[in-house]
Amino acid sequence: AENQFMVARFTMSCCVADAYAIGLPVIYEGAPDLAEGSWVHIQGTLQVGTFRPGDDPLPIITPTLVEPTDEPDSAYLYS
Question: Does the pLDDT of residue 32 top 80, yes or no?
Answer without folding.
Answer: yes
